[in-house]
Amino acid sequence: MKLFSCQSCGQVLYFENIRCEHCGHILGYLPDMEQISALEAGGGDDWKVLAAPDRPRKFCRNAQFGVCNWMVPAQDESGFCAACRHNRVIPDLSVAGNDRLWARIEAAKHRLFYSLMRLGLPLENRQDDPAHGLAFDFLADPPVPHAQGVMIGHDNGLITLALREADDAMREKVRGEMGEPYRTLLGHFRHEVGHYFWDRLIAGDEKKLASFRDQFGDERADYGEALKRHYENGAPPGWQDNFVSVYATTHPWEDFAETWAHYLHIVDTLETAWSFGVKVKPRAAHGEIQAVVNFDAYRAGTIEQLIDAWLPMAFAVNSLNRSMGQPDLYPFVLAPRAIAKLGFIHALTHPKLRMKKAG
Predict the structure, then answer these.
(1) Which of 98, 71, 96 is nearest to 83 (CA)?
(2) How many CB atoms lie within 10 A of CB 280?
(3) Do 68 and 94 share a structural domain?
(4) At what angle do helices 336-349 and 206-216 cross, to 10 degrees?
(5) In a shared domain, residues 21 and 162
(6) Whole domain around residue 17: which residue ranges?
(7) Which among 107, 25, 33, 24 is positioned nearest to 71, based on CA atoms?
(8) What is the pLDDT of residues 51-69, one digit of tens each?
(9) What are the Cα distances from residue 187, in Å, to 39, 155, 242, 262, 265?
């Protein structure tokens, strides 16, 4: 995630800011410009945006609930922004506390959409494509104690997220019970949307399917049996040599979704490092763990460029976290086989770069 600045006073801004603390201007995010803009009141619901004064905007309809700071063109009839237009079911706001949990979900989801839009990926919603468009259901568990809870998952473009995942204590409890080193709302979104883009970018394309199977294995293997085997037996010995995570060992579809999520972890964190001018040059270490992030990770030419910057960065931030008594920020090891799979994701999300090389 890059940094932003106020057009009125130059104050540094963050993605979720809704007011400039220096000059007091109301702020809104313009997804088509990838820019946060200071605002001045217009007529009615319209605002004059200082980043584009001749193009009046209004806030997304979900701004009234305090869960969105994105804007739409003043003439937009739906009123929902590029991220919120994908919501199918939102939490029941008559239930105390659901508004707070939904706000956390939306913060993570909007960061997801920032990445997807930076990569230029196709983002049809259910109005654009009723059968296969990307949509989200944010569901609470049934009030009856013995009833089955909401299952997180993807089904033909519909991503379901359990509202309880926005409760930090509950999510940490589940993380511990599952023996996971990492579990976040943003991680859930990145993983599940990986399933959607497998359907969107790979399924039905024989050439891409062949390349996918070379890297991840044959997805035609029985998924139900694979899940059962995983939960009964765990990961196979030596899994770290081939996969980014334990869950990635379950089935080729899960391997792809986990690798997709890690790719987004890497490019977005490297963009943040770039925005802050971060460089890694340890005083007592060899040159292989030195890095200067002086490029836009979303436009990196090769996976090698990303990994050469990421490995030293991960080493540094993990060391910082340990100094604070915190778990590693990135508690994973990327073996060459996993890096090759990340290269597949990079090529898939950057087809123009691939075509340029071929030419």
Answers:
(1) 71
(2) 20
(3) no
(4) 160
(5) no
(6) 4-77
(7) 33
(8) 999 899 999 999 999 999 9
(9) 32, 18, 20, 9, 8
Within this chain, do residues 256 and 160 fall inside the same structural domain, yes or no? no
Q: Which two tokens stand for residue 91?
A: 């939490």
* CA distance from start to end of the chain: 31
Has residue 195 been placed in a domain?
A: no
Distances (CA, A) of 24 to 20, 34, 56: 5, 21, 20
CB atoms within 10 A of CB 305: 15
**Is 0.90 topped by the overall pTM?**
yes
- Taking the C-alpha atoms of residue 69 and residue 167, their distance in angstroms, rounded to an integer, is 22
pLDDT averaged over 10-residue windows placed end to end, the chain, 359 residues: 93 94 95 95 86 93 96 93 97 95 97 97 94 94 71 94 94 90 95 97 95 97 95 94 96 98 97 92 70 91 95 93 95 96 96 53
Cα 313 from Cα 68, distance rounded (Å): 31
Residue 189 lies in a domain: no
For residue 118, give every residue at least 6 positions away whose Cβ sits within 8 Å of its Cβ, in sequence order, or none: 34, 298
Q: How far is residue 256's CA from residue 279's CA, in Å, rounded to a whole number?
A: 30
Convert the chain into a string of H (helix), E (strand) and C (coil). Answer: CCCEECCCCCCEECCCCCECCCCCCEEEEECCCCEEEEEEECCCCCEEECCCCCCCEEECHHHHHCCCCEEEECCCCCCCCCCHHHEEECCCCCCCCHHHHHHHHHHHHHHHHHHHHHCCCCCCCCCCCCCCCCEEEEECCCCCCCCCCCCCEEECCEEEEEHHHHCHHHHHHHHHHHCCCCCCHHHHHHHHHHHHHHHHHCCCCHHHHHHHHHHHCCCCCCHHHHHHHHHHHCCCCCHHHCCCCCHHHCCHHHHHHHHHHHHHHHHHHHHHHHHHCCEECCCCCCHHHCEECCCCHHHCCCHHHHHHHHHHHHHHHHHHHHHCCCCCCCCCCCCHHHHHHHHHHHHHHCHHHHHHHHC
| 226 & 353 share domain | yes
